[in-house]
Amino acid sequence: MNTYKLLTPGPLTTSDSVKEEMLVDHCTWDDEYKSITREICSELLDIAEVDSQEYTVVLMQGSGTFGVESVLTSIPKEGEKVFVLSNGAYGERMVEILEHAKIPYHVYYEEYNHQFEPVTVERIIDEDPAIQYIAMVHNETTTGMLNDIKSIGSIANDCNVTFIVDAMSSFGGMKINIEECHIDFLISSSNKCIQGVPGFSFIIADKQKLIDSEGNARSLSLDLFDQWKQMSVDGKWRFTSPTHAVLAFRKAIEELRKEGGVVQRSNRYQHNNLLLVKGLNKLGFKSYIEYKDQGPIITTFYYPEDKQFNFKEMYDYIKERGYVIYPGKLTDVPTFRVGNIGEIYPEDIENICHIFASFMEEKEHVKN
Q1: Which of 208, 226, 257 delimits the end of a domain?
Q2: Judgement on whether residues 340 and 360 belong to the same structural domain of the protein
Q3: Do residues 160 and 177 share a domain?
């Protein structure tokens, strides 16, 4: 099998030492394994810089979407409405989850390259007293848009509504002040900025609001309160856990610490992203998002104006040279995406920019 580095927002390229952790088998009932679960929960609270008396952590089997669905279907009481802010595919996925669960909701849609207007958020909440929850994505990987959770969190706090944030592609890779942003439930995943492998999501939750949700869940396996109730006793997952992913995640947290924590990792990601955007802009690939709104995780680029440009041809060319990028997720304009998280360093970004340049030069030579 050919090996290559992933320029994607997760799954991402992991270190060899993280991969090696998965060579060990563990029993889910074993006390040593349960202690690893407790250790991870404690570490996540430390990374989040929140008080363990006020907040708690729940690990949930499955991808990040499982974590989002767990929160959205476990926390709202019967008849209460969720207000979704959506400017990308993952905001739209929240709406799908609520539709399937038959939970009342209201959606404020914005264009994929626009921020939400706080005045509109306030007005909608004022007009609808049934709204008790705001749910939104922090870093929308559809485009790379970094949404302003601080201003929306302030509104949620002022209006006394619960604030739910999908921080899938930002937690661990950039500083998030959970208390300052008034976040009640933050959801992320093992295979994102902490640089583990796929297998589970995790929720950093306001402890009292989680306790108050007992009995609200619309699902057995995704019942957030019941998962926490069992896990908080001794670290036991209610159902079979992804043991190898858990071991890898513990190692990934250790490596995050060695790198210098979230601040240093964020600096690396920001530097990678700046190099990428500058490099590809010079080659004529225009960014979809204005840089002031651009998150450091993944960037969306328009296709070049050349009518003969073929994304599949470029994708294969890049893959043959050791890297994999992402197709676009927009339906109205042709785009592609390049991520720069995981075990990706400035030399990788310089390499990928050279590969893009070589591809464009070869195509220009053939055309002439």
Answers
A1: 257
A2: yes
A3: yes
Q: Cβ distance 127 to 205 under 8 Å?
A: no
Q: What is the CATH number of the domain that holds 326?
A: 3.90.1150.10
- How far CA 280 is from CA of 248, 266, 296, in Å, comes to 33, 21, 15
Q: Domain check: are 60 and 204 in the same one?
A: yes
Digit-by-digit pLDDT tens for the chain (368 residues) are: 568 999 998 899 999 999 999 999 999 989 999 999 999 999 999 999 999 999 999 999 999 999 999 999 999 999 999 999 999 999 999 999 999 999 999 999 999 999 999 999 999 999 999 999 999 999 999 999 999 999 999 999 999 999 999 999 999 999 999 999 999 999 999 999 999 999 999 999 999 999 999 999 999 999 999 999 999 999 999 999 999 999 999 999 999 999 999 999 999 999 999 999 999 999 999 999 998 999 999 999 999 987 788 999 999 999 999 999 999 888 788 999 999 999 999 999 999 999 999 999 887 766 65
**Same domain for 211 and 321?**
no
- Same domain, residue pair 112 and 178: yes
Domain that holds residue 124: 16-257
What count of residues does the chain have?
368
Model pTM? 0.96
